[in-house]
Amino acid sequence: MKLVIFFILVWSMLLPLAVIADAQQTQMAGKYTVTLTSSPNPTVAGDNVFRIVVKDNQQPLVGGTVSIHVDMPAMSMPSDFSTTPGQVPGEYIGKVYLGMSGEWKATISVQRMPDMTMDGDGQTDYLLNAVRLSTVALPATMSHTRLPGKSPFMLLVVIGGLGFLCGSLGLGVYFFGPKRHFSQRG
After folding, report:
1. CATH 2.60.40.1930 fits 2-173, yes or no
2. Among 77, 136, 168, 172, which is least packed, fewest CB within 10 Å?
3. Where are the domains of the chain?
4. pLDDT tens digits, residue range 112-167?
């Protein structure tokens, strides 16, 4: 029993660190390598910016068409978004609105030529978990909803530290606290 409680308390210390998730996902869409990065990370219920980098044989795909379709698997909430070329060759930027927190599926479609399907064109799915807007500080590009003077990194450090502190206190009380016997055998 002590071992089970020990693992639960250790898990409670590590769980806040899951907020600092992998900000970048890479998959294949047809013959193209597609890398999706979301800002803010993790994605939030509300406005997000998707940065999509598309490569064809390690070379950036320039002049292609990249579109984003998002839907919530638990309830039908489909939306389509277009992208614009970014500052780097092969980079496409899309502003995506996720209507609520929860699991979302983002389908990224890549076409070499606009309005024409060619061999190698394809699509790929990414699973995203949008959190409530109030649980994450937004980057400066969305500063109208950001608290002044608060950096997203510091917020994550505080959340992780609080989780670690709570877990540590729980372990300390459990293993070094007063021993109480609730039943006496006679």
Report:
1. yes
2. 172
3. 2-173
4. 877 667 777 888 888 888 887 654 444 444 434 344 444 455 555 556 666 665 56
- In the predicted structure, residue 172 carries a pLDDT above the cut 70: no
Q: Provide the token pair at 158.
A: 């505080």
* DSSP for the chain, written as a single string: -HHHHHHHHHHHHHGGGGGS---EEEEEETTEEEEEEEESSS-BSEEEEEEEEEEETTEE--S-EEEEEEE-TTS---EEEE-EE-SSTTEEEEEEEE-SSEEEEEEEEEESBTTB--TT-EEEEEEEEEBPGGGSPPPGGGGGGSPTT--HHHHHHHHHHHHHHHHHHHHHHHHHS----S----
Side-by-side strand order, sheet with 122-130: 79-82, 65-71, 102-111, 122-130
